[in-house]
Amino acid sequence: MADAKGYVSFVLHAHLPFVHHPESEDYLEEEWLYEAISETYIPLLKNFQKLVDENVDFRITMSLTPPLLSMLDNSLLQRRYIKYLKKHIELAQKEIKRTSYDSRLNELSKYYFDRYSNDLHLFKDVYNCNLISAFKHFQDIGVLEIITCGATHGYFPILYVNENTIRAQIGVGVQTYEKYFGRKPRGIWLPECGYVPEADKYLKEFGIEYIITESHGILYADPTPIYGTYAPIVSPNDVIAFGRDIESSRQVWSSINGYPGDFNYREFYRDIGYDADYDYIKPYIAHNGVRVHTGIKYYRITGKTENKDYYNPRWAMDTVEKQAGHFFDCRQEQITNLSKNMHVPPIILCPYDAELYGHWWYEGPDWLYILFKKIYYDKCDYKLITPSEYIDKFPEIQVSTPCRSSWGANGYSEVWLNHANDYVHRHLHVAGDRMVELAHLFPNEKNKLKKLALNQCARELLLAQSSDWLFIITNGTMVDYAKKRIKDHIGRFTKLYNQIKENCIDETFLKDICKKDKIFPDINYMIYY
Fold it and tell me: Is it true that 6-15+53-71+133-254+315-410 and 417-528 share their CATH fold?
């Protein structure tokens, strides 16, 4: 990498809230995981393998968050994913018969049948239902860097009212990573890129070297960084911060002129779950009969009209090639201009939600694959790099304190603290204070039942703190479910808290919630001490 004038670093944030309902199969929210596996995680893994097989030297960084790791490792959810695939294969088979009247539609229904059948084969026969090992393999051979996140994606800029709660989010996040990857993480994706200087000491305590922040977290740092977001900064507490590059982000993210909006790409919102005859589609939608996405989508974006044209995978791949070329040329121009005025090679940091690639932007994983091949084979002055490799190569870093920030709307905390969800925080803060109180009242408890209850309190608190519930309430999607989850976890926590203090633990209740909220089996409530 010595001859590069600059570097590009892709960081994909793979995260979903912990959704696990052994008591019922009626929760639609469980399908968030299955959609992400089929549309994002398996396509990425397949393309990583293709690049390795073709001897393309590439680098990519991904956060695999503790809730996502816990779900991928859950045998019930693995079995339900297989059931989900079999149902989709059955529907695609029916679609092949139903669409025989139209050759273009028929070709697409065969495409979906092949795709879901291939997912089933890969998941069961190639990955042995273990996607964590599949990602770990690429980390072990040096092309993927996996970083961690807060235990349940708790939002630090509000949680820090009680710093012990931030410490636990970081500590449990690091412990979960070590359990699955057999090493310490060097980096962390701060939940929602939410930065507060108060978190630095806990990041250091658990061995975190660097964080991913939003652009203005760097641009408004104190003192002002000489190179803006094009080089990392290091806080006075010795935590290195990388900031999102605005220009490359806009090209992918923008809803107006971003790549995913191209008319040749698959339309996310037109799905046979809504279009097909009701009696025909009924077995494949929600248990209560509500129409939902099935994943089988026949249309391309086409334009702002109901008269959408059929999706053409070949046209979509032509567009992928063009757009990968455009991104490639833009980074070349950007790095050529920047490198003239910098004494270290610039780094263009490109952080995105992983689910953008495949789930929202169906062709995204193929775009990455083609882009990575271009960067390897075509003439350019830059290379792909991970943040860890960059700081190892260029250890001289300007000291500056990042500013409080997030990547939510308007850059601060209004997504997670507004009139729609502000009532939640007082309950989270009270529960956080009570958890610390329990750790001090019962240090290193020896009684098995009480210890089990104390550890379950820690789980319930962490699950209540997930920033996803606040985000969902703000966005107005699945609001009832998000509110139910907050209420359930705070309710379970409070009931256990009172039972522990009164020394009358309801064993049946405790066993029931341990089964439902089956996350962090090795947690130790003393992390709150």
Answer: no
Give me the CATH topology for the region 417-528: immunoglobulin/albumin-binding domain-like (1.20.1430)
In this predicted structure, the answer to whether residue 516 has a pLDDT above a threshold of 50 is: yes
**Integer Cα distance of 391 and 498 in angstroms:** 48
Please state which of the ranges 26-30, 107-111, 165-169, 436-440 shows the lowest mean pLDDT. Answer: 26-30
Which residue ranges make up each domain of the chain? 6-15+53-71+133-254+315-410, 417-528
* Mean pLDDT, residues 427-448 taken together: 97
Q: Which two tokens stand for residue 375?
A: 């960067």
Cβ atoms of 311 and 358 closer than 8 Å: no
How do beta strands 240-243 and 233-234 pair? antiparallel
CB environment 210-243: b (16+ within 10 A), e (fewer):
bbbbbbbbbbebeeebebbbbbbbbbeeebbbbb
**Between vectors from CA 351 to CA 417 and to CA 322, what angle results, nearest 5°?**
130
Tell me the pLDDT band of 171, cut-offs 50, 70 and 90.
very high
The residues, any chain, with a CB within 8 Å of residue 385's CB and separated by 6 or more, are: 1, 7, 8, 9, 59, 347, 393
Instruction: Mark 368-377 as b/e (b = at least 16 C-beta within 10 Å).
Output: bbbbbbbbbe
Superfamily of domain 6-15+53-71+133-254+315-410: Glycoside hydrolase 38, N terminal domain (3.20.110.10)
Coil/strand/helix, residue 147? strand
Model pTM? 0.97
